[in-house]
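User: Hey, my collaborator sent me this sequence without any context and asked if I could get a structure. I don't really work with proteins. Can you help?
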Amino acid sequence: MDGSSNTGHRTALRRLRQVMAGTGSAQDRLNEIVKIVAAEMAAEVCSIYVQRAGDILELFATQGLNPDSVHVTRLQLGEGLVGTVALTAEPLNLPDAQAHPNFSYRPETGEEVFASLLGVPVIRGGRVRGVLVIQNGDKRTYADEEEEALQIIAVVIAEIIASGNLVTADEKAQLGGGRSFRSSRHAGLAINSGLAVGQAVLHTPNVSIRQMFADDTETEHERLRESMATMHAAIDELLASSRLRADGEHRDVLDSYRRFAEDRGWLRRIREGIDSGLTADAAVQQVREDTVARMRSVSDPYLRERLSDLEDVAIRLMQHLGGGVEQHDLPDDIVLVARNLGPAELLDYDTTRVRALVTEEGGATSHVSIIARALGIPVVAKIDGLMKSVDPGDPIIVDGDNGQIFVRPTESVQTILTDTIKAREQRRSLYASMRGIKTVTRNGVPISLNINCGMLADMQWLSETGADSVGLFRTEIPFMVRSTFPDLEQQTRIYSEVLAQADGKPVQFRTLDIGGDKQLPYLQDDKDENPALGWRSIRVGLDRPGMLRQQLRAMLRAASGQDLHVMFPMIAEVAEFRTAVNVLHMERDRIDRLSTEGVAPPTNIRVGAMLEVPGLIWQLDALLPHLDFLSIGSNDLFQFLFAIDRGNPRVSDRYDVLSPALLSAVRDILRKCDGAGVPVSLCGEMAGDPLEAMALLGIGMRSLSLSPSSFGAVKAMTLTVDTDELGAYMETLLQAPDHTLRRKLKAFALDHGIVLDS
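Assistant: No problem. I've predicted the 3D structure and written it out in structure-token form, which is a compact way to encode the shape of the chain:
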């Protein structure tokens, strides 16, 4: 773009400022804007399309096309080049638009004489609200500076669309601006367990911009610097907050958040926006909207979460530019409802009044989920259309155990659910009273009940449940919440804290179990066509021995003077296990050499494997002499045994874990382990379901590791079962050709007084 063109777009911005400050309807302003943009950017055509109900894009204003096509030409979202820009939320820069496969000819516009096209999305509130287009007769590729200028102008148009009553109230309702007052249930993903009743508070972080164009760019740069300083101070205050424990993943989350706020890339883009003539507020808004739009096209869940954090930082900066974070006059029973939420945004609220959090996006490893877990707040995520379904003040019941919410529940539903909540609380009180009772079956067989953990915040449940040990500590979770690989000191600190909180009870550390549905963004590899069967778990560790050695070294250092239990995941053959153990022995020898320097080794090292791959069942005779313990991972074993993808709804419910096939396989594993004197446990989802756990006890399982939320129900079942009676009955069932034994086992439990409440 030459100097004259650059001057042209700056002149356009000055003239647009006058339009924004003037009077007239929104339609009049759009009509004036297309004339200004066409003139100042040397475009033969400038057009503005606005999104209407039903995903329709309507031509609202044009300079250069047939004026009779205004309010006549309409395109579906994804239809034509304009529809493509709206769908992808990405600019489209074409020297020969009609050669593009998505070109859709509309004869009423008269655009067939124009070759080149530049279209940019008009974005507000993270959603595309329209498209801004310029066209020329000659075949040309528009310069980057022209594209950037058009994007800045799109910010102005977004404000007009948002405030100009271009879309009727009825249409706004169809687009998400209106809501039903009927009771509704919404299913999502259970993130943090718990039940809560409260009033909806919509987290809508949009910040109004008082002025779009800068009077003095240097003043705006100074405002940016001052607001950055106050924002950093506020984040540091959050880091020092007494509401959170001093240690844990949530501290790493906030430290990571602090680094996002210092990212040079997005600050550079903000400064460039100011240099182009925008105020600091408008420049931040432009970068934020672009980030949100791009985030929607990113499939990787980790990257989406990190981009969400960046959006949170942008909103926070805009708030500081506007004078600070607003204080809310809110109810005492807050149910936060949000598209997504940053960790610092949650802490802006009085968390003692936040009963639950529900979001459209997010996941178990999202930063806000980790903060919420540390605060004991139930979370349900991934609820489609949530923000369109809830109004501020709506009563909401949140069921974090089952991943569902009830919006504006009817009186009868409210009564039923309230009674259910009371009943669950009573059961939990009962379960709490059982904490000091030994876990022994009705016929006197001791059962070991242990818990699964993945974060330091989970360790509190070890004492609260009275569990015998941590049967599975998922070491990958602390890796997944960071943006970089944790170093030796960081890993050692985590494992040391876990062992300290265990207070002498055993902790079985599973080495890094990544791959499949658990990806590390900083560990680049080619995408597997079938991740569950690809490069994952111990395969990654053996291919990256430096990474595995560092993790084992951290565990050995953390367990200095204590017992250490190490478990290798997804072992497929004996040779893999022996190789992994050799790496452990090398690190143990290294610790022994350092013992003279004050680094003492663990007092005892016990090594185990996870049996998840069916092929290992036929190698147990060769494997067991090398094992101190074995853990059955029922989730993957079930998946591999039946050749199903647990994440595929078309097949995930096709087979049942209570099938004779799976139960027979587990029984055979138990018999071989018992014969070799090797302790065996099961740590998959089966262990947390009272009926499925009962079946496991019936085939001889005597150790289970389960989620803390399921502990009480499984213990209540265990205290009421007679394993001799159940075992004899199950021997007859395993020979049956049944698809599932679920119905028969439920009948047995009912007939024998076995408690199966969950």
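In plain terms: Residues 1-5, 172-181 have pLDDT under 50 and may be disordered. You can pass these tokens on to your collaborator as they are.
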